[in-house]
Structure formats: structure tokens, C-alpha cells
Amino acid sequence: MYLDQVNSFALYLVVGIILFFILCMCTVFMVKSYRAGIAIGMDKKLLKRSITSSITFTAVPSISILLGVIALSGSLGIPLSWLRLSVIGALQYELNVAEIAATAIGYSGINDIKMGIQSFSTISLVMTTGILGGPLCCMFFLKKYLKKVQKTPKPDGTNKPSYSTVAVTAMFIGLCSAYISSYIGTAAVHQDFIPLFTAFFAAVAMAIFEYFTVVKKQAWLDNFSVATSMLLAMAAAVIISGVIK
Amino acid sequence: MTEQEKIQYFNKINRQFHLIGKAMTIIAIAAMISFSVFAAILYNVWPSLKGFLAGFANVAVIYYPVAIAEFLIFAPMLGTGGSYLAFLTGNLTNLKIPCAMNARDIAKVEAGTPENEIISTLSISASAITTMLIIFAGVLLLSPLRHILAEPVLAPAFDNVVAALFGALGLKYFIKQPKIAIVPLVLLTLLCILVPSMISQTSILIIPAGLIALGIGYVLFKKEKIKG
Q1: In Å, how far are A94, A227, A229 from B155, measured between CA atoms?
Q2: Confidence band (pLDDT; 50, 70, 90) for B65?
Q3: Angle, to 10 degrees, between the axis of helix A44-76 and the axis of helix B114-140?
Q4: How far apart are CA B107 and CA B103, in angstroms?
Q5: Reported ipTM
Q6: In A, residues 188-227, which contact B (CB 8 Å cutoff)?
Q7: Boundary-marking domain end, from A99, A130, A148
Q8: A57 and A34 in one domain?
Q9: Are B172 and B105 in contact (CB under 8 A)?
Q10: DSSP assignment, residue A77?
Q11: Which residues of A touch B102 (CB under 8 A)?
Q12: Chain B contact set for A14 (CB, 8 A)
């Protein structure tokens, strides 16, 4: 009964309409920035390459996000899981927040069999409002914040080497360090070596790609380097898990 | 187009991005909240206010500070259009940011330039559209796909997709600036080993990791030990 209600056609329809709107908006941004790129003299090939490399980059992680939809759909139904993981949500966030919301309203978790449609609408509201921090910051502060942190390049081209390039790389190093450290921690504390092994294998595959793209000047390989390294590492995770078992 | 004209033109485009971005965000937030309201109207059962407040308090205390930190860290990397899109379409740290950085690397554009903003916006919009279409196709085919993808033998692959992503990207960025990478990696590893509860809190770990890396990067840049 509960799963029939949360998987009703009407809810699919609502989600379809919301996602269609956001898809249109993404297309508007894409077209506008593509035209702006051409207007300021960027190479059409480069712009197209950015789009195709982003599509290939996204394809594999999107399948894992789809698996997140499948994982959530058992308790929250397909329409809500579809909505949450197509936009605004994140794989790491959804299950965690749904669980927090379910326990806050008195259940043992989202798989609690007593969960009814009222709990469903309460949890979905908590999941939505709990993740609005980013979009709200953009709405109220993005313009001022970017004006403050981004310097306009001097038109005469006398720009000094900028810290912003180092800062972006540093931020990304920080992001990767956080994840890699958690895998080392998982291996050391929980004796679960698979995530660390997967990350290591992906790094080795990436190093081979870097050798060919940087040393052997095969720049075209860059489009496939991350996605292929990931696929190889994921395949290695399956094999090593089988061996350990 | 001269540099001056380029900047003027790009500022005009950015104003349009702000306008469209704000309108899109307001409509999307209203639409997402309306999903819960619609479900309530459909079945004539309203969300519990007490349950909502308790759940929201527990979630907001963790995720609003994280969202603010992510906004402060990632917005300058993404630029105007990229920020509106990335913060609305989600999967930020595990997909949109790496995707935009990868596109930026391939295009070889510098941070803070109009070219970088254009590449970021193109990359994030392409990524968001791809994710939406793949999930849509998956939802259509959910029953047969569920059996194939949910095969227990494939579980380790999908359980470790984020590890595969950060292994590949980590190598790419660590070799770019190894002097910046060592300290956050060692300190965060020690933190995870000494405080095991932090292992699963990667969304919180990225805040100290990002700040340490930024600080070291700044010192090394000022001392001219690394180049911008």
C-alpha cells in the first residue's frame, strides 16, 4: 500500500515536470555560454571538446548515482529518489539525511515497516529543506562574493602571476586528500582495503594516461583518462573482492 | 574583440547569468517543496510539523555549515553560471567539481578568467544533462536494469566508484603540486586513524583539508616556491 502510494503515476508526473524545467535551464546556460565563448573568440573545437569530455566524465559516476536511486527507491519510492538524485541531492547526502529525518520523527530508520505517507511527506520535506544551503547562498551572496574574490584581468595584459590558479589547485588537492585519507583510515581502522586499493589502482591507471598525454603528447587521451581509469579501478575492485572472498 | 570589449561583453553575460540563475533557483526550490505538498494533498495527509522541525534541526546543524563552506570554496572555481547550476543540480564534490576541473585542465584556461567561467558552465551543464538523462533512462528501464546492476558480484565496483574517482583525480592533482599535497594528506590520515568516526564524514573533512591546502599554497606562492 505505502509503496504503491509513493510510486503513483501522479508523483512521477510531478517529478517529470520539475526535471524537465531544470533540464531546459541547463540547456539555456549551455547555449548562452557556448555563444559567449564564440563571441569572445574561443575556439569552437575547444568548446565542443569541453562538452564531450564532460559527458564522458559524467557517464560512469551517473550509473553509480542511478544505483543510489535504486537503493533509495525501496523505502522512499522511485519518484522521490529520482528527483533527489537527478538534481540538488548527492549520493552521500540522501540516505544519511533520510535516516536522520526518519529517526527524528520516531522511527528506527527509513526501512521501518511502519512508515506511512505522512512520514514520507515529512521526510521528503526535511530532505529538501536540509540541502538548500548552497542554492540559497548563490541566490543571496554569489554576486557580491564573486566580485570580491575575482579580480578583473587588466585589459593591457600586464597581469602578475595570480594566486587564484594555485588556490584552485590547492582546493582540489584538499578535496582529494580528504577522500584518500578516509580510505587509508578505513584500511587502518576497519581492515577494509578495497576502497584504498581501488583508489590506488585508479591512480596507477591515471599515471599511465598522464605519461601518454604529457610525455608522449597524446592530448586526445585526456578526454578519456578519468573515466577509463575509474572503470579499470572498479573492475579491479570486483576482482580483488572476489579474490578476498 | 579587444580585451576591454571582451570584459565588457562578459560582464553583460554574467549579469544575465545572475538574473536567470536567481529565477531558476527560486522556481526550482518552490517546485521541489511542492513535491512534498503535492504528495500531502494527493493523499490528504500533511507532514508532521513537529517531526519536520526535529528532522530539519538535526539535518541543518550539520549540512548548512557544510553548504556555506562548499559555497565559499567552490564558487570562485565555478564562476557565475557554473555556481548556480552546480549548487542546484547537486552531486557537487563527487561529480560536478571534478568534472569542471577536468574540463578546465583539458581546455587549459586560467582560474578567474572569462574563458574559465565559460568552460565551467559548459562542463557543469553538460554533466547535469547527462546525469539527468542517464537516470531518466535508468528509471524507465529500472526493473531489468536493477537485476543486472544490482548483481552482488558488481557491488564492489559501484560501492567504490567515489574511491576510483578520487584515486584518478588525486594522482592528477598531487603530481601537479606535490608540495601542497603532503601535509593535508598526512594530517587528515592521522585524524581518520585517531578519530575513526571522521572516516565516514568526508563532507566535513574537506573543510580542514581545503583550508590547510589553501594556506600552504599561499605561503609557498608568496615565497615563490611554486608558480601561479
Answers
A1: 19, 18, 18
A2: confident
A3: 40
A4: 6
A5: 0.76
A6: 188-190, 194-196, 198-203, 205-207, 210, 222-223, 225-226
A7: A148
A8: yes
A9: yes
A10: -
A11: 53-54, 57, 226
A12: 34-35, 38
A11 touches A80 (CB < 8 A): yes
* Mutation target vs B (from A173, A183, A221, A240; most B CBs, 10 A cutoff): A173
Task: Answer yes or no: pTM beyond 0.90.
Answer: no
Residues A23 and A98 both lie in one domain: yes
- Measure CB to CB from residue A166 to each of B9, B39, B217 and give the nearest one: B217
> In terms of residue numbers, what domain contains A133?
2-148
Q: How many CB atoms lie within 10 A of CB B201?
A: 17
Going by pLDDT thresholds of 50, 70 and 90, the confidence category of residue A245 is: confident
User: Do residues A74 and A134 both lie within one domain?
Assistant: yes
Q: One-letter amino acid identity for A100?
A: I
pLDDT surpassing 60 at residue A113: no
What is the Cα–Cα distance from A243 to B10, expressed in whole angstroms? 55
Distance CA B50, CA A139 (A): 28
Q: Tell me the pLDDT tens digit for each residue of B98-120.
A: 899 889 888 888 877 889 899 99
Q: Which of A132, A148, A164 is the endpoint of a domain?
A: A148
pLDDT per residue as tens digits for the range A218-237: 877 776 787 788 889 989 99
Total length of chain B: 228
pLDDT in tens, A120-142: 888 899 989 988 999 999 999 99
Does A110 lie at the interface with B, CB-CB under 8 angstroms? no
* A72 and B CB contact within 8 Å: no
Q: How far is CA A112 from the centre of its chain?
A: 28
Do residue B32 and residue A18 have CB atoms under 8 angstroms apart?
yes
Name every chain A residue with its beta carbon within 8 A of the beta carbon of B98. Answer: 57, 226
